[in-house]
Here is the input.
Amino acid sequence: MSDLSRRWLVSIIGIPIVLVLLYSGNWVLGVPLSVLAAMGTQEVYRLAAHTGVDPFRLTGATGAAALVLAGTWQGTFAAFAPWALIVVGTVMLISLMLAVMNRGATGGPLGAVSVTMAGCLYCGFSLSFVPLTLMFPAAEGWGETTGAPWLGVAVIALPLAITWIGDAVAFFAGSKWGEHKLAPSISPNKTWLGSWSGLGATTLVGILWYFVTSPYLVGMPINSYLMAGLLGAVLGVSAQVGDLAISVFKREAGVKDTGTIFPGHGGILDRIDSITFTVPISYAAMALLAKIQ
Here is the structure.
């Protein structure tokens, strides 16, 4: 089976599972998402190990899982923030103690602490915005049927659809017609044509998302096709930056994929690299628009 066939197979199986988890929400989503965050954090640490840095893996992975669980438990960013601060502070304190006791001055303590924190925040903090985004309509009172679980799915569909569709369009357009490389030293297969095609697709996805959801998400701060298209473009750029960020880490580590858990797709980080940017930015944009309107 070719890599492309495996990619399609994983997508066909995986997307319905993701939709069921998102619709179920609460701990049905939070627990597996916390496990995903911990596993993604471990992939960050394996990449770091290829460069000679040995982070505190259990500490960082536990912190990442705790951040997602805290987001699931609290439901709003205001309630989540103090708990997130406690988790991050605890991970930092434990990492510093381990660096002093186990590494000393010659065991790479600075790199170990830095990468431990980076991996925890990259996977844990970013993925904690998935349950927070799902709870946005209920917390803000959007929609005539406030509290219906599908309203949360409708909101998070924006960053997810933009990520997946933008990536697919960029991949196929770049593979078929792209000639000029976007960042050959980081990701040799990406082209400028693919990048612009993906950006155009994400803008259209934003507009289509608004057309479909606006009748139901009454009170939502995105209140025009122009605003939805602009947000789609911003998230499209964010998705590409997230993709390139993991690519540069993989190049430094000298590996093709961050793992092998998803056939044809690679590791967890290969699948969530863009989501770790688009979901938090989508949440921040909606929260900001809700405050200024």
Notes: The mean pLDDT is 90. The longest strand covers residues 187-191. The first helix runs from residue 3 to 24.
